[in-house]
Automatic annotation (TrEMBL), chains A, B:
Cofactor(s) listed in the protein's UniProt record: FAD
Domain Acyl-CoA oxidase/dehydrogenase middle: 162-270
Record-given protein name: 3-methylmercaptopropionyl-CoA dehydrogenase
Alphabetized SUPFAM superfamilies for the sequence: Acyl-CoA dehydrogenase C-terminal domain-like, Acyl-CoA dehydrogenase NM domain-like
Chain coiled-coil ranges: none
Acetyl-CoA dehydrogenase-like C-terminal domain: residues covered: 466-591
Superkingdom of this protein's organism: Bacteria
Catalyses which reaction(s): 3-(methylsulfanyl)propanoyl-CoA + oxidized [electron-transfer flavoprotein] + H(+) = 3-(methylsulfanyl)acryloyl-CoA + reduced [electron-transfer flavoprotein]
Length: 596, 596
């Protein structure tokens, strides 16, 4: 049977040792969120994830969602789990207290998200999308709309969706056709078809409120002519109950590779009544302001899956007896040794571990920056943190979902043939995780965002928020003998990143295709260097504690050993990435299209 | 709708230009197999694969196999397709004419296999396993058994299976428990449970014959006490019809990630009547003699999936309009450019192409060596070819399935969110392909085979069959200016491989764990260098033809351009692999087991 235990110890390490998370409570608005509050919040989250959401993960995958007569049914147990989730206050955790939220910092919400994704990614889609709706409406809605809808969204009685994609446009939203026609009462009539609408229809909440991108009559072509509308499934009555049925209905649900318990809907809007959110023709801007956090959220999906796949791989590797250690039998009294003795199995487990914990550190860093960017009293600090979030967002999204997929596949590989069998649960993680590399902007789009928008922004101002601390760390620690084995490989890889950055920037100015051709490898190079920096810092913190009474369970010992493995066995990939980047894009762009 | 067109042009390039396949017809026993015969055989194979097997691939995945009252039903259309397949002579293609086979060379059979795997991997499992049975019985059975069973297996009226794995043992067959008790009539009574038995039960043939590994009473422990038995589902009557039901029955079928139309059975043998194949206690040896070809066959599964995923990705990239080329609109009359204009999409397609065609060349090389090893009149040539097959087998199996999986995932990624939707067919390739990295020895086991058994065998004799031709090629072509861009990167990567080989061999002698810890990266390094050699040779052949009337459709132009991409953008991975190998296994083996 699959298992999941929330990695609270490591989350605390990231928040309170690596990131000095006590600084969070020093931010205005977060005063309550001291460690004394955060710890029990994480523990409660762990409990509902382990005990309520996780047991529904496999059955949800087997059963999937069904559509009958316009009604989408979620798998058995989902409604009860959602009720517990809602009653536990988890839909309101990171929401504005003005609308009934608990106002938790992003860093807390991020780790709660990781647990939800690890326990049941499909389930997490429902509150996840609803939170996206919350953020967009909170940032861009007028007071009337916010007062009418946000409290119900925050307390989870209602849920929200984001309706962007249409059949002929996903990445290129400028092509969208859904129309909005002004009505005499100040509302709009919305008509069009949206696809890939997660949680577009389901049976968990009494009402579903859609945010829909559409075009006003005579709107400019392309993305400059897109507006955002709020379209409820049931029009609310004056006393706030779901009233008359609106012209927004599910047309069909998709049959997918994974996240089968998450309903992915084709939504038909047929003269549905809606209200403008924000300014006319500024819909894309409204989307963009919330996209960073949505992308970080998808990154957490990769991380959550990686964690649970790793845990199960470790358990299997300890349990499965097969062959003998190459250096001689380790458990001669048993018919064979557990496969964890085999070097190649250990290599797989350590790879999974190093990526997973490294990504957790990166996620913590990004989430803390979000909090600082919003709440720090010093505007300079706010801008700096905001710059860092902008820079690191595509890396978090693409790196963490790519590595999450890699770790999920390691999870299968450790199981051997049994990994391919559904009942063991490992193959589901591969299927579920696969979507995270595709949606919220494919990982190729993230890479283009990094090299095209983020790298050159404000003459490299975003870049400096990463390059400066890493450079400072290297300079300060270079002579530290005990840290040498961590700092030296970091320094070497960092030079590669600096040179690649200069080269890609230089070439991209003359030929944008050159930046595009380098983008994916550049993002990976950047991400691996970021993890190296975080592993080196983790080693710095952990080294003095190894072998002391501060390390009764070997947590710090394992940190140092994993950091070492990362530096020796994974970071060297940066040399090949560097060479591929420096080779340039000619071989890619010169290839004749007809020759593919 | 998914598409598949057999890549006959590239297969001919590999067989008749890269490998000088005319030499095959010069081998005794293969005189018939001149290009005049091989071409139409491949064309006929393409036809049945494209027109009969491929249209059942998606429906087979959706429907899967069902078990009811001990009967396994294959998906709709499979039986009719199998009848056509059998009547077309495809089960007998590579079989001994003495038993009704057509005696085709391995190189022909290999490319036919690729097409079958590309068109319908699940379907291919049935004749594939049967061919494994054929080979084992042909090599090890006595004349009576061969005369009784082989003609029916060869003509496809009956099918065969290989029953090795048990619940507690897969890799470690020494642990198996199934028992064989001698009977007065010279037969044996077989009792035990086998799992993961592909084609163990189905409705395609009138009888199913199992080859079962089991222990005789008092047999030595471990692999030295395993014997091989033939156990029919129906005991044949004297006139060769299926007679009395034997005690071999399907217990359940597995629910799997992919290859859902292939029945994967738990087989219960309950006092089933069987006959010894080969010598008592020599069952493992019988298995090993056929394992090379089975592993090459699994490699072809990776290749077949890669090809079909690539083809569909290309078609989608040409068709899907999204965004504008970074260098300015390419099709300004359309609402957007096709995504094939985007550098990152081209990078993905070229990666898929370079791996796929490179693997096809490697497969052709290995298959031709099999033919030479069996049919060459010069025993020195036979041994040399056999050495090469032994060396390259784990590489073909692991590299081609790992890269096949990577390409299948590229196939999904090019589709964006649509890749996750089942109806487009791309996600099925990811699921189907995943098994190939696991069965017939996980890819980690292949890597151990390479470093543990093959590398040091006969003082490096196997290695020389690869190192010498590559080294000769580099020395001969080093000064060739036109080839420099291909030969120089090959030479650099080859030096890495030579140094890594020496280092792994040296360390492995003292500490076997060190070889184990390097194995996976070493196999990948080896495989990438092998592809580099084949790409350099492909470029050498193609360069003089580019721009001449020998290249009306740009085939050679594309070869050269793909070779260039491979050298510039993919081969650099070898530097990171080299560094990881040279770092050694200490960080892997020193990690405390309790700390995972």
């Amino acid at each position: 049977m699959p298992l999941y235990k929330a990695p609270l110890r490591d989350m605390r390490f990231v928040m309170f040792e690596l990131m000095q998370g006590d600084e969070i409570a020093a931010l205005p608005g977060y005063e309550e969120f001291t460690r004394d509050l955060i710890d029990p919040v994480l523990e409660e989250a762990a409990k509902i994830c382990e005990e309520v959401l996780f047991p529904l993960n496999r059955s949800g995958d087997e059963e999937g969602c069904t559509l009958e007569n316009g009604v989408v049914r979620t798998p058995k147990g989902f409604k009860q789990a959602y009720d517990l989730f809602r009653e536990g206050g988890w839909t309101s955790l990171a929401c504005d207290p003005a609308y009934g939220g608990q106002g938790a910092p992003s860093v807390v919400n991020t780790f709660v998200s990781e647990m939800i994704c690890a326990a049941n990614l499909s389930f997490g889609m429902y509150p996840g999308l609803s939170h996206g709706f919350y953020k967009a409406l909170h940032a861009h809605g007028n007071e009337a709309l916010k007062a009418e809808y946000l409290p119900k969204i925050v307390d989870g009685t209602w849920s929200g969706t984001m309706c962007l994609t249409e059949p002929h446009c996903g990445t290129d939203l400028g092509l969208l056709k859904t129309s909005a026609t002004p009505q005499d009462d100040g509302s709009y009539s919305i008509t069009g078809t949206k696809i890939f609408i997660s949680a577009g229809e389901h049976d968990l909440t009494e009402n579903i409120i859609h945010l829909v991108l559409a075009r006003l009559p005579g709107a400019p072509k392309g993305t400059a002519g897109i507006s955002l509308f709020l379209v409820p499934k049931f029009l609310p009555t004056e006393d706030g109950r779901p009233g008359q049925r609106n012209g927004a209905a599910v047309g069909s649900i998709e049959h997918k590779m994974g996240i089968k318990a998450s309903s992915t809907c084709v939504m038909n809007f047929d003269g549905a009544k809606g209200w403008l959110v924000g300014e006319a023709n500024k819909g894309m801007r409204a989307m963009f302001t919330m996209m960073n956090e949505a992308r970080l959220g998808v990154g957490m999906q990769g991380l959550g899956i990686a964690e649970v796949a790793y845990q199960n791989a470790v358990a299997y590797a300890r349990d499965r007896l097969q062959g003998r250690a190459l250096s001689g039998a380790k458990q001669p009294e048993k018919p064979a040794d557990p496969i964890v003795v085999h070097p190649d199995v250990r290599r797989m487990l350590l790879t999974a571990r190093a990526y997973t914990q490294g990504c957790r550190a990166l996620a913590g860093w990004a989430a803390q920056a979000i909090d600082v960017s919003k709440h720090h009293p010093d505007p300079v600090k706010r801008v700096e943190a905001d710059d860092f979030v902008a820079l690191v967002t595509p890396i978090v999204k693409a790196l963490m979902t790519d590595l999450g997929f890699e770790v999920a596949n390691i999870g299968v590989q450790v199981y051997g043939g049994h990994g391919f069998i559904r009942e063991h649960g490992q193959e589901q993680y591969v299927r579920d995780c696969r979507i995270a590399q595709l949606y919220e902007g494919t990982n190729g789009i993230q890479a283009l965002d990094l090299v095209g928008r983020k790298m050159g922004a404000h003459a490299g101002r975003y870049l400096r928020t990463f390059f400066h601390p890493v450079s400072d760390f290297i300079q300060t620690k270079m002579e530290d003998e005990a840290l040498g084995e961590f700092v030296q490989p970091l320094a070497k890889a960092f030079v590669r990143l600096q040179q690649a950055t200069a080269e890609v920037a230089r070439r991209g100015l003359a030929r944008p295709d050159e930046a595009g051709a380098a983008a994916t490898e550049y993002l990976r190079l950047f991400g691996l260097v970021a993890l190296a920096y975080l592993w080196a810092r983790s080693a710095e913190i952990s080294l003095p504690k190894v072998g002391t009474d501060q390390d009764p369970d070997g947590f710090y010992r394992a940190k140092v050993a994993t950091a070492r493995f990362y530096m020796e066995r994974l970071l060297p990939q940066t040399s090949g990435l560097f060479a591929a980047i420096m080779a340039g894009g000619k071989s890619i762009m010169a290839f004749e299209e007809a020759d593919f």
